[in-house]
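Need a sequence for this fold. Nothing fancy.
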């Protein structure tokens, strides 16, 4: 097993395009790390540089203490699991899993033992005689993982392994991959563009945007203390609400009224005028349901609720609004990158399922300003 250290890694493709920009990241031995970001952010390129399928323009890639920049993929002892599984259609499940052992001319008895052990771990024992065409997508995925397991690689590298599966199976496979990784304790790097996958798998998440590492941390850290607007908008579903505002006299003027927070909370805002405040949907409440002891800490505003959705455990309310044009550039760019159309035009609030607020009504909503984030409107940096 091995730690993976990346030092100032840069990737420039032949046409001069810089896909990875000075990334430094330490992955501990046995750690499960997720590389996540929107399409084109450079996550597959980074993974391919770890495994050796792509040249490194500059920087050092160190695996198990050895610099591997010039090492061929086969000499790195890593196992990669691709989106399309790369199974051999003419071979049985047994022989597909055994393939790396056959290449090494491993004795038959040992092959049988190792394949059986992997098959048991992945619940494939009863399918060992089948061919890939007679397996479900999830089973094929497990065969691909079985092949990685028998190689006894120093690290597993996954490139969007679940993107061809339906939602239910994806959920199941997520649990299986977590379980397998925990049991084997093998260093694992997992690439995905799906923030739910990123949050539910792995020990830490590394968020990439346009080839630049934005933040590395646990799901909780990224959710509660996002470094910038991009991470805040990317992690969480429904996403954080962003509302442009003007910071004046220690308060923030927004389309929903003036927001006050403690000077401690606003300390880093300094003399900036244009800011963007961020509030998670679940940080709003129906003001009539807020317990008396919480009321004094919060702020209440009147919202014109367009549509509500009752989901049993909570109620979503959509509140349209018009963001002032001078501070929308950051949000416009974010909408494009995150493929979301509504960051500048509506709030999404998640209320207690017992709320009586209904579509097309005026509602009194409550929130606690001490929970809000304040971002620099120009750079997106989180100032709270
Ligand atoms: P996706 O989820 O869509 O696969 P990604 O984050 O994995 O995206 P990469 O595949 O790493 O992104 O690509 C990063 C950027 O580098 C993209 O803009 C892509 O167009 C560009 N790129 C990838 N391969 C090449 C290449 N061989 N030559 C030039 N540019 C490339």
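Here you go.
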């Amino acid at each position: 097993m091995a730690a993976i250290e990346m030092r100032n890694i840069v990737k420039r493709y032949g046409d001069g395009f810089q896909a990875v920009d000075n990334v430094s990241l330490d992955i501990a031995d046995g750690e499960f790390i997720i590389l996540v970001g929107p399409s084109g952010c450079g996550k597959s390129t980074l993974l391919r540089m770890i495994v050796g399928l792509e040249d490194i323009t500059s920087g050092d890639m160190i695996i198990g203490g050895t610099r591997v920049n010039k090492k061929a993929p086969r000499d790195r002892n890593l196992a990669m699991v691709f989106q399309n599984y790369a199974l051999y259609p003419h071979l049985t499940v047994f022989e597909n899993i055994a393939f790396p052992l056959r290449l090494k001319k491993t004795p038959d008895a040992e092959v049988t033992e190792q394949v059986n052990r992997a098959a048991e771990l992945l619940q494939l024992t009863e399918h060992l005689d089948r061919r890939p065409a007679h397996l479900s997508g999830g089973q094929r995925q497990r065969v691909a993982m079985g092949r990685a397991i028998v190689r006894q690689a120093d690290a597993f590298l996954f490139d969007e392994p679940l993107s061809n599966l339906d939602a239910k199976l994806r959920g199941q496979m997520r649990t299986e991959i977590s379980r397998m990784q925990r049991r084997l304790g093998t260093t694992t790097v997992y690439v995905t563009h799906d923030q739910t996958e990123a949050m539910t798998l792995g020990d830490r998440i590394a968020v990439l945007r346009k080839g630049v590492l934005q933040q590395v941390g646990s799901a909780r850290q990224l959710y509660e203390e996002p470094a910038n607007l991009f991470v805040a908008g990317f992690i969480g579903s429904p996403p954080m609400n962003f509302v442009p505002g003007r910071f004046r006299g220690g308060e923030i003027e927004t389309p929903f009224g003036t927001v006050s927070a403690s000077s401690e909370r606003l300390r880093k805002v300094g003399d900036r005028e244009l800011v963007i405040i961020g509030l998670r949907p679940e940080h709003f409440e129906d003001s009539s349901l807020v317990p008396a002891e919480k009321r004094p800490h919060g702020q209440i505003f009147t919202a014109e609720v367009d549509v509500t959705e009752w989901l049993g455990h909570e109620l979503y309310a959509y509140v349209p609004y018009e963001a002032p044009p001078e501070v929308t550039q950051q949000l416009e760019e974010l909408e494009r990158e995150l493929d979301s159309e509504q960051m500048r035009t509506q709030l999404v609030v998640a209320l207690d399922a017992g709320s009586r607020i209904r579509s097309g009504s005026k509602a009194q909503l409550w929130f606690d300003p001490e929970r809000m984030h304040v971002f620099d409107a120009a750079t997106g940096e989180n100032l709270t």
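For context: DSSP finds nine helices and 21 strands in the chain.
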